[in-house]
Design a protein that fits this description.
heterodimer; A: about 270 residues; alpha/beta; Rossmann fold; eight-stranded mixed beta sheet; B: alpha/beta; seven-stranded mixed beta sheet; five-stranded mixed beta sheet; 17 strands; about 20% strand; binds thiamine diphosphate; binds iron/sulfur cluster; binds magnesium ion
Chain lengths: ~270, ~375
């Protein structure tokens, strides 16, 4: 039997706005499967996003959804979560939204280790605005604002999240669709701030400019560069050259923000 | 039982007013001269099971504030000039998405870092026009420590009634001076809570105008699920670009406030009955004005004061009526003529308008106002 995605899609809200071949829909399907696996209640789950093509995802999902301003998802979500720690709070958005304009909120959410899951759809570009470079665009690549090649170095989002204090960090790709739900489900179950970067594609504004002939070619690239972290253990530095590790890359325990605040209330005598 | 009295700063009183109003959530970022609000809230909120968070900047603070408010909490932030500038995009978000919250902004010298410890009244236009796009604004101007307390309570009532961010804007003098205040008894001041939806979750639409110009807002996590966006939207909260919806939606968001100006606008008329000179003043400047009016009366000059308590919506009707009666308005303010612009707009050339404008970090003093009265012809 075909998987029933519709049960978690808001009635009447499809078709979506994404271009044919865009990876964002693959991520949404992964998120739906993860939410199903964990039987997350719609009324008790908030999906919060910023602005961008990726950030349009919440509108299609049947739960509490909050489409905020560009870059501000993590900060809005922090307010929702702190006000109602019993809710499941999931953030979604693009590489530009999360690591450029929203970079400050991103690192501070990692630092606080507030119990939310952040899914970053990294298509290496500002898709919605027509393909300007983002902090994730590789050096030398073409974007509408780097016609001579991008002079900026790119962020490694996984390292950024780990460095900032996230306690669960994973990476998957839009090609490895079957892995996405497992990574997201594990991230949601993790107590603390969890980050799942999904390497994604934007054929419309990034692919064409960077000489990818088709979506298939972009997907094949994701297939080729991805190396599961387990497999990487047996590979030499030479073999790992140019590869990107996928899977659960970081998992540690650290006090969670809302729990710590509950202790503040306790110390202040507010539980009477 | 005798009332609880205290000798407090305006900022401290504001925090206690918020607690009286049932505020359970504070998100902010430290900035002089507003920080004491955050300090009191950080100490008091956890005592009542509320939440305080110091965010990474004012944009984040405004975002967390809106998130907390959407999750059903009465929410307060405090800031000052530079922070108010940073909050603007999300103040607009609060307006279009119609999320109640209170922004307590202490006015210091500006633009930019300006004079962090100097008093000013130069954020009044920023409260009205700071965020882009058409939107309504409500801003209250306390002139005493007691008013910091009382007006914050009222600001929460207005925010919940009209489903929008509401400003309380003391100047630095009012925020930092110490006066005796009374803590209000339960029931002494009206406290309005958010109207709950009257329909079950399956029928709920967050912007359903069949419930009037201010549709009830459900809380995330309360059993209702719905969509919130900063895009122009349909009654169900989903984006639209359909001309007729967008136009009607934008007009409603102004109408919900401006059709109720008489309920919202509060002011004080002091010695105005037979006045030929009307001093229009607000905040600490109104204290100098009151002194000057008393002095003038002692000298036989027919002066009075119109004290603005609600700066936005501006008391158009009252100033228009006064323009027919008085010879001249004197508008003392700690900026280069912001309230004057509004008084001019309302007076329509029917009365002389004389500004007294100080941006040197010093208050407008009564002598300046008395001196100015001589220029009224
Ligand atoms: C304050 C602000 N600045 C700029 C924009 C314009 N803008 C909208 S989406 C976007 C980039 C989105 O890129 P990303 O987050 O990577 O998402 P994608 O569209 O690639 O999925 C930009 C710059 C905006 N909406 N708001
Ligand atoms: S522009 Fe790019 S990111 Fe946006 S929907 Fe199209 S393919 Fe996806
Ligand atoms: Mg992108």
């Amino acid at each position: 039997m075909a998987y029933d995605y519709e049960s978690r899609i808001r009635p009447g809200k499809l078709p979506h706005i994404w271009c044919p071949g865009c990876g964002h829909g693959i991520v949404m399907k992964g998120l739906i499967r993860a939410m199903d696996t964990l039987s997350l209640k719609k009324e008790e789950t908030a999906i919060v996003s910023g602005i961008g093509c990726a950030s349009r995802l919440p509108g299609y999902m049947d739960c509490c959804t909050l489409h905020t301003a560009h870059g501000r998802a993590a900060a809005f979500a922090t307010g929702v979560k702190l006000a109602r720690p019993e809710m499941n709070v999931i953030l979604v958005g693009g590489d530009g939204d999360g690591t450029a304009i929203g970079g400050n909120h991103f690192i501070h959410a990692c630092r606080r280790n507030i119990d939310m899951t952040y899914i970053i759809m990294n298509n290496y570009i500002y898709g919605m605005t027509g393909g300007q470079f983002s902090p994730a665009t590789p050096t030398g690549h073409k974007a509408s604002t780097t016609p001579y090649g991008n002079p900026d170095p790119a962020f490694d989002i996984v390292k950024l999240a780990i460095g900032a204090g996230a306690t669960f960090v994973a990476r998957g790709t839009a090609y490895h669709a079957n892995q996405i739900d497992k990574l997201i489900a594990e991230a949601i179950q993790h107590k603390g701030f969890s980050v799942v970067e999904i390497l994604d594609d934007c054929p419309t504004t990034y692919g064409r400019r960077n000489k990818y002939k088709s979506v298939v070619e972009m997907m094949n690239r994701l297939k080729d560069v991805a190396v599961p972290v387990k497999a990487a253990e047996k590979m030499s530095a030479e073999q790992l050259e140019g590869k990107i590790l996928t899977g659960v890359l970081h998992k540690v325990e650290r006090p969670e923000y809302c729990d710590e605040y509950a202790k503040v209330i306790e110390r202040a005598g507010g539980n009477k | 039982m005798s009332k609880k009295v205290a000798f407090l700063q305006g900022n401290e009183a504001a925090a206690h007013g918020a607690l009286y109003a049932g505020c359970k959530f504070f998100a902010g970022y430290p900035i002089t001269p507003s920080t004491e609000v955050a300090e009191v809230m950080s100490a008091e909120l956890p005592k009542v099971g509320g939440k305080f968070i110091q965010m990474e900047d004012e944009i984040g603070a405004m975002a967390a504030l809106l998130g907390g408010a959407l999750a059903g909490k009465k929410a307060l932030t405090s800031t000052s000039g530079p922070g108010l500038s940073l909050k603007q995009e999300l103040i607009g978000y609060g307006c279009i998405a119609e999320i109640p919250c209170v922004v307590f902004n202490v006015m210091r010298g500006g633009p930019s870092t300006g004079m962090p410890t100097g008093p000013s009244q130069s954020d009044v236009m920023c409260a009205r026009w700071g965020t882009h796009g058409d939107h309504a604004a409500i801003a209250l101007m306390p002139a005493s420590v007691q008013e910091c307390y009382d007006m914050v309570v009222r600001a929460f009532n207005l925010a919940e009634t009209y489903r929008m961010p509401v400003f309380v804007m003391p100047d630095e003098i009012v925020a930092h001076m110490r006066e005796r205040i009374e803590f209000r008894e339960p029931g002494e001041l009206e406290v309005i809570d958010r109207a709950a939806p009257s329909v079950p979750p399956s029928e709920y639409k967050p912007y359903d105008t069949t419930f009037g110009d201010v549709p009830p807002l459900a809380a995330f996590g309360s059993g209702y699920k719905f969509h919130v966006t900063g895009l122009n939207k349909l009654p169900d909260g989903f984006p639209t670009t359909k001309a007729e919806y967008v136009q009607a939606e934008e007009e409603r968001q102004l109408r919900k406030v401006y059709a109720k100006v008489d309920d919202i606008v509060e002011f004080e008329e002091f010695q105005l009955d037979d006045a030929e000179i009307c001093v229009v003043a607000y905040g600490s400047t109104s204290r100098s004005a009151r002194y000057a009016v008393n002095e003038a009366r002692a000298q036989g000059i027919k002066a009075g004061m119109f004290r603005i308590k609600t700066f936005w919506p501006f008391p158009d009707k009252q100033i228009k009526a006064l323009a027919d009666k008085v010879k001249g308005f004197i508008v003392p303010e700690m900026n280069l003529g912001m309230c004057s612009i509004e008084v001019e707009r309302c007076a329509q050339g029917k009365a002389q308008i004389l500004g007294i404008n100080r941006v040197d970090g010093e208050p407008v003093n009564p002598e300046q106002i008395l001196e100015k009265m001589k220029e009224v012809k």
